Amino acid sequence: MASTTTPTSLVILFTLILLCVTNQAREPFACDPKDGPTKTLPFCMVSMPIAERVRDLVGRMTLQEKVSLLANSAAPVPRLGIKGYEWWSEALHGVSNVGPGTKFGGDFPRATSFPQVITTVASFNASLWEAIGRVVSDEARAMYNGGVAGLTYWSPNVNILRDPRWGRGQETPGEDPLVAGKYAASYVRGLQGNDGDRLKIAACCKHFTAYDLDNWNGVDRFHFNAKVSKQDIEDTFDVPFRMCVKEGKVASVMCSYNQVNGIPTCADPNLLQKTVRGQWRLNGYIVSDCDSVGVFYDNQHYTSTPQEAAADAIKAGLDLDCGPFLRIHTEMAVKTGLLSEVDINGPLVNTLTVQMRLGMFDGEPSSHPFGNLGSKDVCTPVHQELALEAARQGVVLLKNLGPSLPLSYNRRLTIAVIGPNSNATITMIGNYAGVACGYTTPLQGIGRYAKTIYQPGCADVACIGDQLFSGAIDAARQADATVLIMGLDQSIEAEFRDRSGLLLPGQQQDLVSMVAAASRGPTILVLMSGGPIDISFAKNDPRIKAIVWAGYPGQAGGAAVADILFGTTNPGGKLPMTWYPQDYLTNLPMTAMDMRSSPLKGYPGRTYRFYKGPVVYPFGHGMGYSNFVHTIASAPTMVAVPLDGHHHGLNNTTFAGKAIKVTHAKCNKLTIGVEVDVRNIGSKDGSHTLLVYSTPPARHWAPHKQLVFFEKVLVKAGTEQRVGFNINVCRDLSVVDTFGIRRIPLGDHSLHIGDIMHSVSVQALPLGVIKN
Ligand SMILES: *[C@@H]1O[C@H](CO)[C@@H](O)[C@H](O)[C@H]1NC(C)=O
Ligand SMILES: *[C@@H]1O[C@H](CO)[C@@H](O)[C@H](O)[C@H]1NC(C)=O
Ligand SMILES: *[C@@H]1O[C@H](CO)[C@@H](O)[C@H](O)[C@H]1NC(C)=O
Ligand SMILES: *[C@@H]1O[C@H](CO)[C@@H](O)[C@H](O)[C@H]1NC(C)=O
Questions:
Q1: How far is the CA of 640 from the centre of ligand 3 (A)?
Q2: Is 548:187 a contact under the CB 8 Å cutoff?
Q3: What is the pTM of this model?
Q4: The CATH number of the domain covering residues in 381-601
Q5: How do residues 49-108 score in pLDDT, each as one tens digit?
Q6: Superfamily the domain 26-374 falls into
Q7: Which partner from 35, 468, 475, 751 sits 20 to 30 angstroms from 106, CA to CA?
Q8: Is 425 in the pocket of ligand 1 (CB under 6 A)?
Q9: Residue 572 CB: number of other CB atoms within 10 A?
Q10: How far out from the chain centre does Cα 202 lie?
Q11: Ligand 1 atom 6, closest CA
Q12: Residue 650: CB atoms within 10 Å
């Protein structure tokens, strides 16, 4: 019997072979059912609580084995049936090929490449952010199942875009702490899934903290000591990380290269142990930026021996080193008494717990809830459509004289398409990208609506020389309309490449002005960039009828730009950062961290919250093909803040003009409920972002205004939508004093709701006054 092969088992065998060939299924990482001796160990028991399984596993390991797991390329532990693992993969806006954990090729040559984050954030649509995370994690799981990617992704980058020159500004959710925090929490939820403690993939919010300088004027991130006030930490730099951990429940935080107030962030127990793990209750692991432990030893000379550097990092709360430093030096740190073996258990518990939550110790990967995802689930039409939709939602219309946009479409019309980014492909996906499924360039997108004449005008975005100008000018003379597609790319702004100024590079400005002067039809300027550009010349030039910022719009960016130019999409994106004039930078070193302005020192302050000077375009600017008006349906004019028991003796008068500590207020459910009607008075359906800011009673440490709520709503032409929201008094109306303490200023707070101002009087209600 055993030796005869029945037709049925032949079919099964054949199917199995086929499965192995078409879907190179991944071997189990640990607890392999085929591995008799290890699969029965307690840490492999799926029915046991993860904490107990981790305790069992850590208890079985030798010091050497433990130390070999402290690096991103974690060694195998064959004795316990555990394979090696590469922790470093990236998925900033699609599965990326940055990081050794992911290798495109074979069954997985491509992945969906969404717009760069700064563009996606311009949609101000939190459900879009989460939807993108879900698609990216489907593709990441599929690639993991196929053996070409990891499950731990060091994305997103949620550092505040503090200075417009930062080369990595493109990766960030912009300059506003609330927007950055909401983006972080939404994208992380999309990536990690919504299955209790189980993780679809593990995300990572980076780079903690005050990291937003790469290489500027001789100062680089490996040597920079960011001097940051307690005030700015509390109400700016901490906010996105706190929201990422507390609301997004992220499984990892990465510390940065720089020092904060003289201490490398990866060696600072106040930042890691006390804040991230203690106050915010991170359930996950803390990883270093790549080789940042080595950097604080070798470049910053923060400790005198490498063993001390290893001990400092681990004692501060670091769990995993991107780089070999901890693997090389930790054992000696234990042998010389700088660390005890127990100190190494904490990091291992944190990393192994995440691996167990990912299902890596559950045996066959194919039995995982996402174990059936494979190459058929990557670059699907639905995924690619979402990349297009994200670009459409993120493109920002900055100027529209006439209005000249949308262009009417008619196959007989000819559009001159001019500029070095006209036929862009990889430029559209920015940095930390992968290999896109395919591209639609702007030239191709416009070609779907009209005849095109293409002239690059400049050889590349550096635009040295005017040799190609005459061809561009001739094209503009002949065409019915001219679209210039200009801006930046990674040769101008990138990781380790901060800009020195904000103007368009080389002779781009001359090309734009000369083409606009010669153009027979309307001239439209489309800009690709991550950071803001000072295009005052174009804003003020009446021959340039319209300006569109496309950011880096992803693989389908050219289609989205064309859909907006020709009006099949009604633009609704808004700028997530201030567009400053070039002279904002005069006497403003990138190293000056203060957010708040200092008129006495001639310091302008940073972001719309603290800078009051002239701008090219403000934070939140963005037009559409419809107009929206707001009406307040209901909003209180007074709110009383009940104080806790410590303030029995005090009365209302005592608090007049003061700011009470949030910790002294009874904050629970202390909210201001507001309802606003948003009416679309245009003739096209459109999505509108309601932005609500508050301005507290004047105090020298308060922002001019602070975003406290935003929501995007779809409003059909001629109709209205009611938006209701609650402003949390303690969280949203408080301001931070110079000691980093949150206080609620008493008096009149102004709410800016669209173009309406509404005043709310905030009063103290001492306990004695409360009547039951
Ligand atoms: C535009 O780019 C596409 C994709 O790289 C390429 O196939 C096409 O030839 C380019 N068109 C022109 C006119 O250069
Ligand atoms: C409020 O309290 C202050 C100081 O405790 C006291 O001097 C004042 O008389 C009180 N005012 C009223 C109206 O109770
Ligand atoms: C508190 O004092 C303000 C004036 O400072 C007054 O307008 C308000 O009615 C008082 N509120 C209560 C609850 O007594
Ligand atoms: C937000 O994005 C989602 C996903 O693309 C979309 O379905 C929804 O309509 C968008 N919301 C608005 C108000 O545009």
A1: 9
A2: no
A3: 0.95
A4: 3.40.50.1700
A5: 999 999 999 999 999 999 999 999 999 999 999 999 999 999 999 999 999 999 999 999
A6: Glycoside hydrolase, family 3, N-terminal domain (3.20.20.300)
A7: 35
A8: yes
A9: 29
A10: 15
A11: 423
A12: 17
